């Protein structure tokens, strides 16, 4: 059935002395994998793929799915799995040896993928299958995969003249290297700064758990140090900005954070030149492909049709949100002046003053709520929501990992003959100096059928929350809980797929501006009383979250939602216009032009303007080191879909006391999560909701509905 059985099948089965990166029989062998394994494994897999492509393209026969697409996918999947482990370790264990191993092979892997995308003979084989009699006999899913493959070949430069292909390939390689360097600079710059407090009076206002973590950080220094060490890692930085009474400390921390990886810090870590070069390369790529700008290229595989359509969506939302944002800011300024004595509200005062205003207005603080969210109870609650919605079990399991802190779980569902394995996931929750910032889900293995059976999916769920201190379990803010549910939503999209075709199983093949639907959807449950009852227990007393405190949280749910919304719109519009309006035909884009555009966007939508020395673009890794270039708007676009989808649970749960409705959950699984990218996202949404999406639920959930 498959020609791929002749391709180095020996690497599919582990042997005692085999390179552990080439063992695909089970979970990645993190206990055995070393940096020196990277080059031979990846080179060998690249050679295997090249040999297969050469053989398949030389065959004069009309290609078939089983004889052509299947072996291509299987060989490509092995390379993707192995390189995925390397990339994952580069993100979560970024020590010099792994950084060197990753960067040494990055040009090679980028060159290979660029070659494949431009291989005209390979492109012609896919077209021949698409145009053959077999195409009509293929399932709609396989037909969609072929159509996407042809689209991706065109976007990869397959139809370019031969004379232009080497330059296009160089562009892809350099972009990969620049993205990696951008991320590394940001991590190094984040780790480079610390604020040392030696006088305990300087800790005024800072919560005890943050103080304990800072003390532990100081003790962890070589030879141990006196005092307290605060860093720019979010679990350390945020409590200072929210609670520290020392305004000068907040100002220093804010400036250090705002100027990370810029010319205002270590010049060797300045991302400004990288930004200019990345933009120039993207612009050159777009023009070579016949598009006006990179924004148009970015939207080809997305739900949205044109940059103008997206910009219209963002501006319409901004027009609705800005009056609420202006009201939020005026209230904050008035409070800061009257209650805190701050005649001028500076950016480093905003988080501090906002927390004080929230405490005064709603009589509670984030720190108070945090005590009710110890990590074990939060995980129990999260898993309970998943069980209730989808009737699956989440159970502890064992597998090698990259850090002792990492946990491993399996998901099972009840089948006709007993429990059936659905998938596995790793959970890496706590911040480390060797882990890049933020939170994300990534694929360790995707569901698909292959020549040796069927693989169940495996996911990485990674966050940067504070770890345990003082002998107590870690406690999470409610925002942390939202983040955990968000990433778990991505994980469920990957893990609960029921599609066996690799190219569209799980999150694969899902339009980028729809991929946030399941993640943002999950966040909604963090506001439900019946959910919070089951996932809260005071870290000291074990008491569940009091109803009175919950009512205050709900009253404050949309506190400053106007300001938060315009901030996201600012990022989205900046990203879209940067990739749609800034021409780079003359070479690298001067950082001054980038900053000038950001200032222009802020004048249109922002209400709080940062200082002139703020260097936000230099740390905007979503668009310069991630997959969100000209796509950051996806968060808001998908938020419309997710709010509307959650409204179905609100409707089903009306009068029942719980929104955890298993029938609606089963439908959400069947129509959204299960189908992955096997059909257009809009079709999936309409299959679940029975109609086109509406913005009403988002505005209602955000408290941005004009009062009558």
UniProtKB/TrEMBL annotation:
Keywords: Hydrolase, Metal-binding, Metalloprotease, Protease, Zinc. Residues 240-703 form the Peptidase M3A/M3B catalytic domain. SUPFAM superfamilies: Metalloproteases ('zincins'), catalytic domain (SSF55486). GO terms for cellular component: cytosol. Its EC number is 3.4.24.70. It holds the Pfam family Peptidase_M3. Transmembrane segments: none annotated. Residues 46-164 form the Oligopeptidase A N-terminal domain. InterPro entries: M3A_DCP (IPR034005), MetalloPept_cat_dom_sf (IPR024079), Neurolysin/TOP_dom2 (IPR024077), OpdA_N (IPR045666), Pept_M3A_M3B (IPR045090), Pept_M3A_M3B_dom (IPR001567). Binds 1 zinc ion. GO terms for molecular function: metal ion binding; metalloendopeptidase activity. Its cofactor is Zn(2+). GO terms for biological process: peptide metabolic process; proteolysis. It comes from the Bacteria. It catalyses: Hydrolysis of oligopeptides, with broad specificity. Gly or Ala commonly occur as P1 or P1' residues, but more distant residues are also important, as is shown by the fact that Z-Gly-Pro-Gly-|-Gly-Pro-Ala is cleaved, but not Z-(Gly)(5). The keyword Protease applies. Belongs to the peptidase M3 family. PANTHER family: PROTEASE M3 THIMET OLIGOPEPTIDASE-RELATED, SACCHAROLYSIN. This is oligopeptidase A. The lineage of its organism: Bacteria, Pseudomonadati, Pseudomonadota, Betaproteobacteria, Rhodocyclales.
């Amino acid at each position: 059935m498959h020609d791929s059985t002749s391709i180095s099948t020996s690497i599919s089965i582990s042997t005692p002395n085999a390179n552990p990166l080439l063992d695909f029989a089970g979970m990645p062998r993190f206990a055995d994998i070393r940096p020196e394994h990277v080059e031979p494994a990846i080179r060998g897999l690249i050679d295997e793929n090249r040999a297969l492509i050469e053989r398949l393209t030389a065959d004069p026969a009309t290609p078939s799915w089983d004889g052509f697409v299947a072996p291509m996918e299987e060989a490509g999947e092995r390379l993707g799995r192995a390189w995925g482990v390397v990339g994952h370790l580069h993100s979560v264990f970024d020590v010099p040896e792994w950084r060197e191993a990753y960067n040494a092979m990055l040009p090679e892997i980028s060159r290979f993928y660029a070659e494949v995308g431009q291989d005209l003979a390979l492109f012609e084989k896919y077209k021949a299958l698409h145009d053959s009699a077999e195409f009509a006999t293929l399932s709609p899913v396989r037909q969609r995969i072929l159509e996407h493959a042809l689209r991706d070949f065109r976007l990869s430069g397959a139809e370019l003249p031969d004379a232009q292909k080497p330059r296009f390939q160089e562009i892809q390689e350099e972009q990969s290297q620049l993205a990696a360097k951008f991320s590394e600079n940001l991590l190094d710059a984040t780790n480079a700064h610390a604020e040392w407090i030696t006088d305990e009076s300087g800790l005024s206002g800072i919560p005890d758990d943050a103080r304990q973590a800072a003390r532990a950080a100081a003790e962890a220094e070589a030879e141990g140090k006196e005092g307290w060490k605060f860093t720019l890692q979010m679990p350390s930085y945020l409590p200072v900005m929210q609670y520290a009474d020392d305004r000068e400390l907040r100002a220093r921390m804010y400036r250090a954070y705002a100027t990370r990886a810029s010319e205002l810090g270590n010049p060797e870590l300045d991302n400004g030149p990288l930004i200019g070069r990345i933009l120039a390369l993207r612009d050159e790529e777009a023009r070579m492909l016949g598009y006006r700008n990179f924004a148009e290229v970015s939207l080809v595989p997305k739900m949205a049709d044109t940059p103008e359509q997206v910009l219209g969506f963002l501006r319409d939302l901004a027009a609705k949100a800005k009056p609420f944002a202006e009201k939020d800011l005026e209230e904050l300024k008035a409070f800061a002046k009257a209650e805190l004595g701050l005649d001028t509200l500076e950016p480093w005062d905003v988080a501090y003053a906002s927390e004080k205003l929230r405490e005064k207005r709603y009589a509670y603080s984030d720190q108070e709520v945090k005590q009710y969210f110890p990590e074990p109870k939060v995980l129990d609650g999260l898993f309970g929501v998943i069980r209730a919605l989808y009737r699956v079990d989440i159970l502890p399991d064992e597998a090698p990992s990259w850090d002792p802190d990492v946990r491993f779980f399996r998901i099972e569902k009840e089948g006709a003959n007993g429990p059936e394995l659905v998938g596995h996931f790793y959970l890496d929750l706590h911040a480390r100096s060797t882990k890049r910032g933020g939170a994300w889900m990534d694929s360790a293995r995707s569901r698909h059928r292959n020549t040796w059976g069927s693989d169940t999916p495996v996911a990485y769920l990674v966050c940067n929350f504070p770890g345990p201190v003082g002998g107590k379990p870690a406690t999470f803010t409610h925002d942390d809980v939202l983040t955990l549910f968000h990433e778990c939503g991505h994980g469920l999209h990957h893990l609960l797929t029921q599609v066996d075709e690799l190219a569209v199983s799980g999150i694969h093949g899902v339009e980028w501006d729809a991929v946030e639907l399941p993640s943002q959807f999950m966040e909604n449950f963090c506001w439900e009383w019946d959910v919070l009852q089951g996932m809260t227990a005071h870290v000291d007393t074990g008491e569940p979250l009091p109803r009175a405190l919950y009512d205050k949280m709900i009253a404050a749910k949309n506190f400053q939602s106007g300001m938060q919304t315009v901030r996201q719109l600012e990022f989205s519009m900046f990203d879209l216009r940067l990739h749609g309006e800034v021409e780079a035909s003359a070479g690298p884009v001067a950082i001054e032009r980038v900053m000038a555009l950001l200032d222009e966007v802020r004048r249109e939508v922002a209400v709080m303007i940062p200082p002139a020395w703020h260097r936000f673009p230099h740390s905007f890794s979503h668009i310069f080191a991630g997959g969100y270039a000209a796509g950051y708007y996806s968060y808001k676009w998908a938020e419309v879909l997710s709010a509307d989808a959650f409204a179905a649970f609100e409707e089903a749960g009306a009068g029942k006391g719980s929104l955890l409705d298993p029938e609606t959950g089963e439908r959400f699984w069947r129509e959204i999560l299960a189908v992955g990218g096997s059909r257009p996202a809009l079709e999936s949404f309409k299959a679940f909701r029975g109609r086109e999406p509406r913005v009403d639920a988002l505005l209602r959930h955000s408290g941005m509905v004009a009062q009558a």
